[in-house]
Model the fold of this input.
Amino acid sequence: ADRIEFETAAQRENGGEYVVRELNTLGQLVPAGRRSQYFPILYREPAPLNPKTYGFDAGSESGRLDALNRARDTGEPTAPPWVEPAPGEDAEKNLLIFLPIYGEGAVLDEIADRRQAVVGYVIAILRLNRLVERAWEGLDSEGIDCWIQDETTPAEKHQAFYRGTKREGGEGTVSPPMPTPAASDLARPTTIDGVGRRWKRHF
Done:
């Protein structure tokens, strides 16, 4: 009943179709299955190319749901593993960052308080290609290969982003794999902790 009331209110506010949706196994947006809690997108700026992304349940995938819950419990911006674009969007890898919003004046001293007080989230969508290119802007990067690896995930599922001279198929391709530096290599691996994840940069 709560979901139907929410969808009806969102349809009145947005002046069009609004359904809580999720991705099926084919990557298509379909009405979400029944569950106890949803995290649907209500507003987005700029407007998406595919209007059906309104209503997409950000908690419909386990990695995102875990990040939403950690953001709620800590009060800190938190990212899930980076994701492939939704249907209809540009073909870029995206990094989502969830920031919880609590009720005005709420007491947030304990985790139980924050769980009770959360009323929604702001979600930032960072395009990795653009983010990396902006970081290199104005620098002479010719001949420099750069990898960014998410080390928060299990070793067998480490995700990497590549920028450099040896790519096959365009920016962001994970080719060649991140090398293991030898003592004589002109390499600079560094580790950064941020948005609830651990990142490894390798130049």
Notes: The beta strands are 21-23, 29-31, 94-102, 118-127, 146-150, 159-163, 189-194, 197-202. The chain is about 20% helix and 25% strand. The mean pLDDT is 84.
